[in-house]
Amino acid sequence: MIPFLDLKRLNEPYEELIALATQRVISSGWYILGREVDAFETQFAQYCGTRHCIGVGNGLDALTLVLKAWDFPAGSEIIVPGNAYIASVLSVTLAGLTPVFVEPDPETYLLDPTRIEAAITSRTKAILPVHLYGRCCDMNPINELAHRYSLRVLEDAAQAHGACYQSKRAGALGHAAGWSFYPSKNLGALGDAGAITTDDDELAGRLRALRNYGSAQKYVNDYIGHNSRLDEMQAAVLSAKLSFLDTDNRRRRELAQRYLTDIMHPDLVLPPADQLIQDVWHLFVVRCSRRDAFRAYLYEQGISTDVHYPTPPHRQQAYPSFSQLSLPITEQLHREVVSLPLNPTLTDADADYIISRINAWT
Ligand SMILES: *Cc1c(COP(=O)(O)O)cnc(C)c1O
């Protein structure tokens, strides 16, 4: 069986380095907000090309804390892609704000800049582009609109570690970016972890307080804060793994290239290949109108697949108030998308097998 993702195998090449890193933390006797978090924040900011990185507990908190830090009036509107992962939408409502869904570009699955302007109202305060599946949104037109209407831009970069847009990295493409280091991400911790990157000094200072009870100085609370700190153990693991991110992403690209050139099936729509080198292929997502049959066939052949995601946020029970919305492109994507196994542990033989089984499907 080729699993969709085997986290043990994914971390095997780094086990020794991870053991050294965690032993260093154990021996230090310092477990929260210390040298390891400082070091990772410095390295990751440098990697992304931003002035600041603020480590937090997870990706959802990263997005939520930025929206809270911006301190918009309650009920302000935030533009999000209709086909976002639920976390992007949750961050908006947890911050007391209102998501306004915009349909994605059906070719790239990303927020469609040509549809944003019609969704802007006098209450709109920010745009939240999601770099879904490891490909950056088309940020020039998004930033231009944001500038024209005085909106903030918050990147959801949780699937885009190392992805590029023109000459810049994800995380440096808006006013701030939220990151997740959930174990399955391109840069994954051994538990929950997240971060925010930004060039904004004032915002960074506020976020450092907000992640730690709203306190910049012990027992002095300037804001109603959260407890959402990246811990020393996860920071040490992430520092150990960061230097291999580019190598891992290169392997993902090689595999994506093979799928893109060798998968040939009239019932499958492959993802766009025009930015192969810029994308980091967090997921390799194809579309198929006979999705259930396709997945069942691959499973019989010993190939596990996944669906990202089966239900769009506006159709989740958590949000009954959005259930009447009609987002036909989003809804069709959610009916058709299938993620094939693609990660650095996949061998050339695995890829050959997956391609040959897919091409033989009738
Ligand atoms: C994983 C993910 C998140 C949330 O990250 P957590 O660390 O699980 O909270 C947010 N947005 C996107 C697009 C994600 O893939």
The averaged pLDDT comes out at 97
What would you call the structural class? alpha/beta
Under CATH at level 1, the class of the largest domain stands as Alpha Beta
Q: What is the fourth-level CATH superfamily of the largest domain?
A: Type I PLP-dependent aspartate aminotransferase-like (Major domain)
| Total DSSP helices | 12
CATH architecture label name of the largest domain: 3-Layer(aba) Sandwich
The largest pleated sheet is described as: 7 strands, mixed
Structural write-up:
A 7-stranded mixed beta sheet has the order 1-9-8-5-4-2-3, with helices on both faces. Strands 10-11-12 form a 3-stranded antiparallel beta sheet. The protein starts with 6 loop residues before the first helix and ends with a helix. The model has no long low-confidence stretch (mean pLDDT 97). The chain has 12 helices and 12 strands. Helix content is 37%, strand content 14%. The protein is globular. Helix 5 (86-94) links the parallel strand 2 and strand 3. The chain has helices spanning 7-11, 15-28, 35-48, 59-69, 86-94, 139-148, 201-210, 232-242, 245-262, 291-300, 328-336, 348-359; strands at residues 52-56, 77-81, 98-102, 124-127, 152-156, 164-165, 168-169, 176-180, 194-198, 268-269, 284-288, 337-340. The protein is an alpha/beta fold and 362 residues long. The chain folds into 2 domains: 7-103 and 110-242, Type I PLP-dependent aspartate aminotransferase-like (Major domain) (Aspartate Aminotransferase, domain 2, 3-Layer(aba) Sandwich); 245-359, Aspartate Aminotransferase, domain 1, CATH 3.90.1150. The structure holds pyridoxal-5'-phosphate. Pyridoxal-5'-phosphate is lined by residues 58-60, 85, 87-88, 130, 156, 158-159, 180, 182, 192, 194.
